[in-house]
Amino acid sequence: xxxxxxxxxxxxxxxxxxxxxxxxxxxxxxxxxxxxxxxxxxxxxxxxxxxxxxxxxxxxxxxxxxxxxxxxxxxxxxxxxxxxxxxxxxxxxxxxxxxxxxxxxxxxxxxxxxxxxxxxxxxxxxxxxxxxxxxxxxxxxxxxxxxxxxxxxxxxxxxxxxxxxxxxxxxxxxxxxxxxxxxxxxxxxxxxxxxxxxxxxxxxxxxxxxxxxxxxxxxxxxxxxxxxxxxxxxxxxxxxxxxxxxxxxxxxx
Amino acid sequence: xxxxxxxxxxxxxxxxxxxxxxxxxxxxxxxxxxxxxxxxxxxxxxxxxxxxxxxxxxxxxxxxxxxxxxxxxxxxxxxxxxxxxxxxxxxxxxxxxxxxxxxxxxxxxxxxxxxxxxxxxxxxxxxxxxxxxxxxxxxxxxxxxxxxxxxxxxxxxxxxxxxxxxxxxxxxxxxxxxxxxxxxxxxxxxxxxxxxxxxxxxxxxxxxxxxxxxxxxxxxxxxxxxxxxxxxxxxxxxxxxxxxxxxxxxxxx
Lengths: 253, 253
Prior knowledge:
Two copies of one chain form a homodimer. Chain A contains eight helices and eight strands. Chain A is of the alpha/beta class.
């Protein structure tokens, strides 16, 4: 049985607390968050605290907060021989340099308050400073997912950037599509089957092969018609992405 | 029974031919394509031709070719009292001005050779020059889909632009995510659960609400770290989309 405490109360923290509370091989000893109301709901199953000095000694501390808050929490964990992990995509392992046994537990998914996440397929990348701790980290990860893999700091930063493209930026393009519909009194739900098929398609074929549209076939007439209608940042984004696609496929025409 | 002929042999044409051949209330009399090999497989069920002059008189001609080829086919349909439709997102109805009874049949989906499409939920926007033909157009569309709606030329252009954002451009961002993974020896399949959840999420909540990430929370540290790694068009796209997101949410911070 691994004794573990989790620090954080955001969307990711809440999902992880729930997942680890359901893991038979892990005991969640304490959950800490600055404001207790976000973690109060876990109080029947674990000890919830909002005073960092009340942290008890456990095997593993999982710091699951915004990147900027990691150093503060790390400074306040006084058990320097414990294994201390963070969950950040873009923070190097050395932010935890104070601890000889440090590591990263990086789940690659978008977490929202109201969405259930299928943890069994959730990719979790791990990194550790000590070979001896690999087993513990893998065990932790495998307790909540079947999709667990090593990922060093440089790779993790790259995966995080890739995730910004396929999640944050993709969602922003969804938002632009929706707002174009709204501006023209069109039900934006009409876009949904297309949007979903676009995602489903790349499970079966690489996006390079799945690409279609005016930019790929260098259909300048259509691109011109579209640019005439668009304004401001929508127009700039249309232009830049079309140029990028045209450039990628220019040798295929 | 509506007698119909379909002109075209691309991905969309092939899917539509198949769908209409399965519709009990529609008789597909002929299928025309410049190169016969693309439509040969339909020859057991309909007449396939590659000479436009061999078109017989039917009730409806469905022109389902690239935008540039529409005028040529329209010029070669000699039955000027028939209902003639095109399927283009960005072509106004008046490209068919020669025909008094003209219309548009615009399916909002991405079609690939190797992907089956669930036509029952496929949004189909229609437009017609003659009120009398509305019934026929709706009947055609409803024979293959439950998601049928009127869409004038201006709205159709807007929907097409929105579709370019949520399909073509989104797929390009998938491609960028995949190439970042490849460059760093990371299995790009890791991105798939995130990518799929990003799409599934906006079925339940508007993309405006679903947005997360460094640009939304104006996390300049992370953005800076990411820009330091990125080069060329990936860097430009990262910058422009981050600025656009920051701008959209700046009043919320």
